[in-house]
Amino acid sequence: MRPGSRRGFKFNGSLCWGQRNGLDHIPGKEEQRAMNTNSLWSTHEKSENQHRREICTAGKWMYDRGFIVACEGNISVRLDEDRILTTPTCMNKGMLEPQDLVVTNLEGRQLAGERKFSSEIAMHLLFYHMRPDVNAICHAHPPTTTGFAAAGRSLNQALLPEVIIGLGQIPLVRYATPGTPELSAAIEPFVPHYDALLLANHGAVTCGPDLLTAFFRMETIEHFAKIVLAAELAGGPVLLSSREVAKLMAARTRYFVTPPPGGGAELPETSDTGESSSSHVSLTRNELDALIDEAVRKDRARR
After folding, report:
1. Between 130 and 24, where is the model more confident?
2. CATH code of the domain containing 207
């Protein structure tokens, strides 16, 4: 099969069909808009110049899609074990040139670049410290997604198979002032367990093994937010059952989706789980086993 063929693509965990790690920059306005799926290089096999061009392309995509305006948002990639390449502050991320980008170390000290890095670099560094599998991060303010975040709502409903397989659910992180240690403290409990987060009254952040995946996850949650809103306007969403969700989660390996390493992600809300926190009961494994054994005994006794 020839490279770039749309047949035989693997599901890369970013809710799209595509070959692994493909975000090649091709000069030209129209070509920049198109996603090139012919790249087979992994993140660490790309040169710094390639990463610079790709960040500029991803910034343009986010700006063109309305995920950011003015000087909002930021993007970063892991260059190696010690260095991060990131977008500068006070610049439109859709109008960047490769030389505008900044290199820092994992402690947030600037190593290269004439411009200053974003005050939100600490949020990026937290992901890189806690998630060795993460090599790229996108932070943006997609309007529908941010609307849910501003309303204090997570995107946690079991509605779309693709979202359940690729992301599980997208939880809401409590509000903290952007660019402060409080924001890092707020998101820290979520970082090991989720690849996409809503930031209350702020926006969203996504991560991935490569920049294309991180970008696609941002695109996916905005698409999902629009569908949730449309379903509510159309009369109310009809959620999938726990059984259907379990089948979708079991299918992750078939679609080459690798879940976050933390293993503590909550499943999305289903048609047979209540919305009220008062209806949720926490059980230990031993307590759950005991309840199951008791139910089995009672069933046998009735027979």
Report:
1. 130
2. 3.40.225.10
